[in-house]
């Protein structure tokens, strides 16, 4: 198992659609593609959509297949996880997909102002302990980082099996006068008329939690 992880890490570092940002680089010049994703990598002006904590990149790949007129970038610290999505994109010759291996804390070192249009946060660690509130990816400190790289009115989507985390995220929206566009604590309730991508693209964790009977929460909001 350990050898397989090391092999995947090495392969990810060699993939043309994968990029790595270290702690040292995040404090200096940042990722070389920062501010240049449209021009130097995607070679188009299509909107850029991020999946934060993308894991194996199921959502990144699933969305990229549905929306060829958008560019998708998965971000995760684990190279052996990213490998799955990156390899799929290479094998299927998907030119609207990339991955960045780094910490979400360093997101501002990866993208410039107005470079990102939309963010997906799919089944993140809810960090339930009160002492770890600062680690929650929908905490206002993270949201302010997102604001610094997103276009005005940028969209954030959250999917989670953890209703307290969903409730916390809604409180952040209300307290900071963000604009809630959609919210449900039971995405798969009968009669849902939402975009099919919400229910037809499932991460490993969504499948796992759904099979255990957990309700899936969904939240969509806009930054001013």
Task: Describe the secondary-structure layout.
Layout: H1 2-14, E1 18-20, H2 23-27, H3 37-42, E2 48-52, H4 58-66, E3 71-76, H5 79-91, E4 97-101, E5 116-122, H6 140-147, E6 150-160, H7 163-175, E7 179-184, H8 196-200, H9 204-211, E8 217-222
Parallel strand pairs: 1-4, 2-3, 2-5, 3-4, 5-6
Antiparallel strand pairs: 6-8, 7-8
Helix pairs in contact: 1-5
Defining key terms:
single chain, 224 residues, alpha/beta, Rossmann fold, eight-stranded mixed β-sheet, 8 strands, globular
Write up what this structure looks like:
- The protein has 224 residues and is α/β, with parallel strands linked by helices.
- It has a single domain, classed as Vaccinia Virus protein VP39 (Rossmann fold), CATH 3.40.50.
- It has nine helices and eight strands.
- Strands 1-4-3-2-5-6-8-7 form an eight-stranded mixed sheet, with helices on both faces.
- Helix 6 links the parallel strand 5 and strand 6.
- Helix 1 (2-14) crosses helix 5 (79-91).
- The longest helix is centred in the N-terminal third of the chain and has 13 residues, at 2-14.
- The radius of gyration is 17 Å and the shape is globular.
Entry summary:
This protein is an alpha/beta fold. It has nine helices and eight strands.
